[in-house]
Amino acid sequence: MTVEWEHADVLKEKGLCCCLDVKPHALHEFVYLLIFDGDIVKIGRSENPSQRLSQHISACSVKMVEAYIFSVLDSTRAERTLLDWFENFRLTGGEWFVIPEISRNDVQRPTKFSINGVVFWPYAACRPTCELCEALKELSVAEELTSE
Fold it and tell me: What are the residue boundaries of the structural domains of the chain, listed by start?
């Protein structure tokens, strides 16, 4: 299946944000990476990522330059995986980091990826479909076929 995807730069030119209007979802959860000026990164999880993103933008004095939201099956495990993955870049004991762009390359792509067995599915409101939802539907259909 081919999924059309617009790069964040194209969306910015159109005045859109790939993270707008991402609402709570029944099938999966969300984790996010927010990137601010100076390679400052906030890693977190939320049931309502658009709302959480807005809170960070309004509360932070540093300009946010990019945001990545990922669909995951277990947001607690996925968040812990990202926090551990970027441990060497942590600012304090929390969820704030200074991560150079080259070190973020693995998570800044429009395709799913895996870190230590946790699969991260890029999510954006501008995508025509959610790839994780599609994969879950295919799995459900396959299970139904094998149980018949």
Answer: 8-147
Give pTM, 2 decimals: 0.70
For 7-34, how does the pLDDT look when each residue is reduced to its tens digit (9 = 90+)?
444 444 555 455 555 655 666 788 888 8
Express each pLDDT in 27-62 by its tens digit.
678 888 888 889 999 999 988 777 787 787 778 788
Which residues are within 8 A (CB) of 39 and not within 5 positions of it... i.e. 6 or more apart?
Answer: 98, 99, 100, 101
Exposure string of 101-138, with b = 16+ CB inside 10 Å and e = fewer, is eebbeebeeeeeeeeeebebbbbbbbeeebbbbebbee
Q: Give the type of residue at 55.
A: Q
